[in-house]
Records
---
Amino acid sequence: MTIQWFPGHMTRAKRQIQEKLKLIDIAIELLDARIPLSSRNPMVDEILGGKPRLIVLNKSDLADPRVTEQWIDYFKYEGHETVAVDSSTGTRVGDIPVKAKEILQEKIDRQLAKGMNPRAVRGLIVGIPNVGKSTLINRLAGRNIAITGDKPGVTKGQQWIKTTFDMDLLDTPGILWPKFEDELVGYRLAMTGAIREQILNVEDIAFFAVRELAERYWPALQERFKLDKAPTDPSESDEIVRIMEDIGRRRGCLVSGGQVDLEKASGIILRELRSGNLGRITLEAPFPAAAGRPGE
Ligand code: GDP
């Protein structure tokens, strides 16, 4: 589902989430472990306010584990507990209710001291489209639930989903809009599959992807496509196009006259990047020495 995020939609999405916050104990902010900055809503602190929050780095199966650890430290420094999960297989999703309880422990203790019966923790999953909200809800619930109505502006009755853990979830996750202000953010969202290709040109997305990979993960790119010539300067457009053409030739993407079909090659590059065939890749890191550059 593609959502057009007009200012009115953003206002309504924000309001809807704030209505839901009244019903819950903790917000679960879902980010893509490969692009924790680009997959973060720019107003998330304002929207969630002082609500207890757990950050979940999803799709960590596709991300560089070394950099994921750095992100966990970084968010801790920012004051947020963070867990890294793979919702597609369920790996470590059980850490979410455990950590949520830890975060809420004082509140739970206060309720116990007043003689109240502690109930299951109530959570709301929030995140940008395609970050894996529905997949995570299904994993936590241990069954497939048709998750609908999560369009900004569409209201429907709230229901609690019982999970297999000591945690209930609101059945409609909070949909946040991605960052738009920066071209690089758009391309990173597209590379990882968060934005549909119809919006951006496939060859342009692949160009950005190859450039980022050539800068940070050249050995992975070289190994996957059996490339022999490393770029002397990955910031040079000509060099990136040459790598794309080499990949195209390797994969038999040729048109008559022996020219490389760049569109076809681009499709292959993006498919293999997104499915993890190039290895575990993170495009943004919190500290300069790691995979990405902060703020980019
Ligand atoms: P939503 O729009 O936030 O509800 O996102 P979905 O739950 O529909 O997930 C978007 C895509 O990401 C789907 O193709 C999922 O299979 C995939 N996905 C979700 N979580 C993970 C994960 O942890 N690892 C991997 N590899 N894929 C995931």
---
Amino acid sequence: VDRSSLSRGALIVFEGLDRSGKTSQSARLVSFLKEKGVPVEAWRFPDRSTRVGQMISAYLANESQLDDRTIHLLFSANRWEKRVQMESKLRSGTSLVVDRYSYSGVAFSSAKGLDIDWCKAPEVGLIAPDLVLFLDVPPERAAERGGYGTERYEQLEFQKKVAQYYSMLRDPTWEIVDGCLTVEGIEEKLRGLVSECIDTCQKGKPVTNLWP
Ligand code: NYM
């Protein structure tokens, strides 16, 4: 029996608008899984620790100006530079809980007016998530939550556009979770969805690539 195809980890992705609760829910989920003894790591994109990530970070902080397509490709490159590591983690049985992925890449850039298919193209061949958890919060509600920071994109009108593009990207495999429920209520729902997904992956669900 080829054990390498068995018992792989799951790629679980959080998506949603800024201030939708992704970061706190992904942290809570990761500690829950760790307590249960599930091998898991918390990842996020952009990964600001790499050189490409530092360019992205400077752009988001308005410390540098970049052409819209250039920054789009940097966000994509930032995922590509982690792809090999991502695949080996998954195949060695470690699940990854990732705060934002390709859908953020496409939704934010197309909200600026770039063609959606053009935005998807550089994402083709990245690993497809096993589960996309979309925290659904109306842009107006998200804006009320402790205010946005000062980074680029953190403005209500722009977030409304991003919300429209997210709804175009949605497919039936996404789990749309009401992000206006209580923190504990959301957590409870996520735990159920994720446990099921991890089971399916352990049973040998193949690793596939974007864009399905
Ligand atoms: N963002 C994030 C993009 O525009 N494209 C991408 O590919 C990714 C991963 O970066 N407003 C945007 C969405 C956020 C910003 O993300 C920084 P975070 O999760 O706030 O660090």
---
Amino acid sequence: MQVKIKETILEILKGDITQLAVDVIVNAAGETLKMGGGVAGAILRAGGYKIQEECDKLAPIKAGEAVITTAGKLKAKYVIHAVGPRWGEGEEERKLQNAILNSLKLADKNKLRSIAFPAISTGIFGCPKEWAASIMIKTVLDYLKSKTHLEKVVFCLFSDEDYKCWSQTLTKMTETL
Ligand code: AR6
């Protein structure tokens, strides 16, 4: 599903983020930027080790922060590595908001036109899906009120259940717009 917010399309889709032909995909990274499991492991396998080598020069970063590398063999041109919160560590909401906001700012700073996010922090980091969906979507909707180069923002979900959760959240949040 998709909605238009001013000049930008906000799209929810189900799929493998490593296969998307957008300017930049976001990696759900950890502080050390070691691309082990989850979406990070999938990006490493599809994009190649050069991405990890670039990450090693930028690490470590804190929860809420984001850095950008090239994308190796991926269809995307860049990868933004954003660190979300671990559930239970404290200040989870602020950290997840910042991870999204700093990724959007970094994409804009590099004049990129399309960005795709996975469901940051909802896998290995254990955050509840509905909670994460509403924070991530609200942060994007707020960001799109200001001037941006972004023509498309995608949330790429890996399961039917996650797709349903994100679509329902977007529908609820845009009903009143
Ligand atoms: N495309 C889209 N989404 C995916 C894909 C894919 N190819 N693979 C998994 N997901 P996770 P986190 C979904 O665990 O919770 C790593 O070790 C998955 O179903 O990747 O932020 C890092 O190095 C889930 O909904 O990220 C960090 O240390 C979502 O992506 C740590 O895990 C995020 O799950 C970060 O944990």
